[in-house]
Amino acid sequence: MRTLFILLFASIISFMQFANAQKVEFGELVISNVWIRNIPANHRMATGYLKIENVGNMDDKLIDVSSSIAEEVEIHQIIFENELIKMRPLKEPLTIRAGDIVHLKPNGVHLMFLRLKQQILPMEFYQINLTFLNAGQLSVEAVVNFDPISTMQHQDGHNH
Questions:
Q1: Residue 160 domain-assigned (yes or no)
Q2: Considering only CA atoms, which of 69, 73, 145 is closest in space to residue 110?
C-alpha cells in the first residue's frame, strides 16, 4: 500500500512540474506556474496561484481576475493582526514592477475563487482571465493540484 501511495504521489508531482512549467508570454509579461489548490467536493471557495514576471521597462498592474468556475475572484493577502492570521482582499491593484517577479503563492498573496459554480476536479484545467492595466486581458489555464507541502505533512502525520 505504501509503495502504491509513493508511486501515485510521484506521478502527481511529475504532472505538477509539467503543468507548472508552462509559460505564457503576453507582451512584456510572462505568466507561469498557474494552479488551483484541490479542495473537498463540498467547498464553495478555492485558492489559486501563479507567477507573473515583468520583463519590460514599465510597471503594470493586475486590475481584475475572473473565471467561469466562480461568481467572483479576488486577489487576497495574508495579514497578521493581533497574533492572528487573516486573509483580506487587496485594496489596490497588484503592481508588477518592471524587471520584477511577483509570486502568488500559498501563505502569501493569492487568488481567492468565491462561490464556486461547479465542483473543481483534480488534474483538470480551468480558465482564469487576468486583466492588466497596460498589457490588457489574457486567459490562462490553471490545473487543479494537491498542495505538495500539505500532502507531505499529512503523510508524516502532521495536522494543520
A1: no
A2: 73
Q: Which residue has the higher pLDDT, 148 or 116?
A: 116
> What residue numbers bound the domain in which 46 lies?
2-155
Q: Note whether 73 and 66 are within 8 A (CB).
A: yes
Given pLDDT bands bounded at 50, 70 and 90, which one contains residue 10?
very low
Q: What is the pLDDT of residue 81?
A: 83
Q: Report the domain count for the chain.
A: 1
Q: For every residue of the chain, which 3-state class applies, written as one string?
A: CHHHHHHHHHHHHHHHHHHHHCEEEECCEEEEEEEEECCCCCCCCEEEEEEEEECCCCCEEEEEEECCCEEEEEEEEEEEECCEEEEEECCCCEEECCCCEEEECCCCCEEEEEEECCCCCCCCEEEEEEEECCCEEEEEEEEEECCHHHHHHHHCCCCC
CA distances from 75 to 22, 61, 110 (A): 22, 12, 6
Model confidence pLDDT, tens digit, residues 19-62: 445 799 999 999 999 999 999 988 999 999 999 999 999 999 99
Asked if residues 137 and 129 have their Cβ atoms less than 8 Å apart, the reply is yes
